Each structure stands twice: as structure tokens, then as C-alpha cells.
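Before relying on records like the one below, remember that each one covers exactly one chain. Contacts with other chains, cofactors or solvent are not represented anywhere in the record.
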Amino acid sequence: MIATIQHPTETSKTSNIINYLQNCLEKQLHQSALTWLNWTIEKLLDNPSSHSLFIGFSQTPRQVGKANLSLSQEAISTARQLRPGWMPEYWTVDQAVRTLLLLNFQTDEPQEYLASVEKLFSAADVAEQIALYQSLPVLPYPQQFKARAIEGLRTNMVTVFNAIALHNPYPKDYFQEAAWNQMVLKALFVESHLSQIQGLDSRVNAKLAKMLSDYAHERWSAGRGVNPQLWRAMGSFTEGQILADLEKVLREGETFEQQAAALACFGGSAEAQTLLDKVPTLKQAIEQGQLTWDSFSQTHL
């Protein structure tokens, strides 16, 4: 059994997440790995120093491995209840352990905790950065890491960028509009899967729609294709040039591109609804639930 932890600054939600991760890891890790984890947590309790945290953090993959975290459907549902949008089913065991260490790092002052995590970020290798960014939505004082998360978007390592942008509720919940828009646009540039960005449908805005339309025009001018998921972020801003863009895609695009444009029209302006009337087959498929963004994303991420 992993040691029971009392974090002086933890909320009841944090305590529940600690218990959740402990239960998941106890079901999957070998006894030797559990022994090491238990010893490391006890050491953190006895000596809650940054040094102890850093040592445990760096030793984690060697001690517990890098296997995918195996979760039942019930466990996945529980994760969503503990923290809306939390998706640990995409984590590995070392990422779960590193998060557990961060959650159990005791400090008397919030600034001491924040400074220690910031030091980890500054010295982290790629795998450690991924674990840190993935953990942000469940850490104490999550709003205090917003500047760090936004800075992380500037990375030239796609895996690190994806740890922030994909399967992570943190940007949806904490990023202001400018940072959110830049994240979505960069996801297109680095060919990340837009459908895996949480909040892509709910955080549409006029500036983002204009940015994405401009991006589509740049691609078309260069004779290159456009990720059809781009049209998902148009929301109700399907007017003027954007409406003309959708009309062009419906007229000239491949079948899958026409499907995406039709979906954008369905959720768009009154003018877009009128445009959708010109493709009755697609309109009917949408109205009957046969074509949705979810079904579309199964084959076009």
C-alpha cells in the first residue's frame, strides 16, 4: 500500500485525486516499484524539500517504467468527475507517479510550492516537461501556472506542445483569448490534431475565425490543402469572407472537406444555414445525426 498523505495546502478535490492516482498505480505497478514509490513519498513527508522532490521526479521512469496507464471505463469516468476534462487515460505510469509526487509535496507557503515547481520546469528534460504540463489541471494553485503554460506553447518540441494543447482542460479553463487563439493556430502549423483540443467548439471567437480563414487562404495560395477541422472553430462567425470560404469548399472541395464545411454551416450564421440548403444530402445527414463533428473526427482528426 502507498502511504496515506496529508497535504497541508490540499483541497478535498486534491485529496481525492491523490487517492485516485494511488489506487490506479497500486493496481498496475509491480511490488518493487510500489515499494520505491512508498519510500519516496514517505521521504517527501519527512523532508519536504525541493531536493527530495527533484530526486524523486528524476528517478521515476527508471523505477516505475513508462507503460501506458491502464484504466477501466469506470476509472475514466471517475477521473472526469474528480476534475472535469481530466484525461489520465492518455498518460503513462511515470507521468502519473510524477503527478502524485507533485500533489504530495508539502510546503507551508504557496509561494514555496510554486517556486519549487517552477524550478522543475526550468531544469526539466522533454519527458519531465510533458508530465509537468499534463499535471497542471490537477495541481494546487493551477491559475498560478498560466504564464508558464503560455510560455510552453513557444516550444519547438511538438510532444511538449501537445501535452499542453491536447487532451488537457487547462488551456480551455485558464487561457485568455489571445493565448487560446495562438495555441489553436500553432496546432495547425505543427499538424497536431485539432479534434483533441478541449473547448474547440465552446471557445470560438471572431478573431480566431478570422485568423483561421487567413491561414486557409495562405495554404490555398501555396497550392496546399487545409485541415478540415479548421472550419470547426468558426462558430457563428460564418459571415463575409468566411462564408465565401465555406461556399468555395462546398463547391470545390473533396467529399470530406465538404462534410466539414457543411458542419460549420450547420452551427453557423443564418446566411450559413441558407448555404447549407444548397447541399441537401449533407444537411439531411447532419439533421439525422449521421454526420457530426465527433463522427467526422474518427477519420479526420
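The chain has a mean pLDDT of 92.
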